[in-house]
Amino acid sequence: MTTSQAMLPTVRQPGTIMAALIATLVSVAAGVAAAITVYAGGTDMVKSLLSDPDVQARLGLSDDLLNAAKELGGDLFQQVLDQAYGTLSARAAFALVLAVLLLVFGVLARGAALWARILVTVFGVIAISLQLLVVTDIATSSMKLFGLLVILSTVVAVVLWWLPANGRYAKARKAAQN
Q1: What pLDDT, in 10s, does the model give residues 164-178?
Q2: Which of 23, 43, 66, 89 could form a disulfide with 156 if both were Cys (CB 3.0 to 4.6 A apart)?
Q3: Is residue 138 within 8 Å of residue 59, measured between CB atoms?
Q4: Rounded CA gap, 37 and 33, in Å?
Q5: pLDDT at position 2, please?
Q6: CA 37 → CA 9, 61, 82, 158, distances in Å?
Q7: 103 in any annotated domain
Q8: Would you call 33 exposed, middle or buried from its count of C-beta atoms within 10 A (0-12, 13-18, 19+)?
Q9: Domain that holds residue 90
């Protein structure tokens, strides 16, 4: 260590980085919880969704039509359930991938590196878009609740990652390393 390096002040991490990381972790946990809700519910969850009058009205269905479909052929009705579950399952898998990416890049962004904050932002915006689809589409109340939590915590996280203190910290760290 040279004399000039020893004289440089220690760079302190701002609290906004820890707050951003916590908000990112809340988003990750909510995204995983929403996916688990889908996988744990299975096609039974889809059946319960189809029994909801609001969902039926949104899909242009009625109890009579659903009962007729069940009577005509259980296999046909099961295919409809499987297809609807497949859609929800694909969204859940995508949510899990996004949660993992947010976790990885959130942890890597602790040093406030620009590239890591950009990737957290990009994957955060994608996660928000996915959860907006979940919240506005046909889903259980718990899926919608977790989706709203992902949206809110991700917005907070992205804002926190881009606060000026984090940029100054990244620049100071880079200068201290050179």
Answers
A1: 999 999 999 888 887
A2: 23
A3: yes
A4: 6
A5: 54
A6: 49, 25, 16, 25
A7: yes
A8: middle
A9: 15-177
Q: Token pair for residue 34?
A: 């929403």
Query: pTM of this prediction?
Result: 0.85
Question: DSSP 3-state helix, strand, coil percentages of the chain (rounded to 5)?
Answer: 85, 0, 15
Distance (Å, rounded) from C-alpha 83 to C-alpha 79? 6
Residues 6 or more apart whose CB falls under 8 angstroms from that of 12 comprise 169
In a domain, 169, yes or no: yes
Length in residues, the chain:
178
Number of domains in the chain: 1
Residue-wise pLDDT for 22-75, tens only, equals: 999 999 999 999 999 999 998 888 888 877 777 777 767 677 776 777 777 667
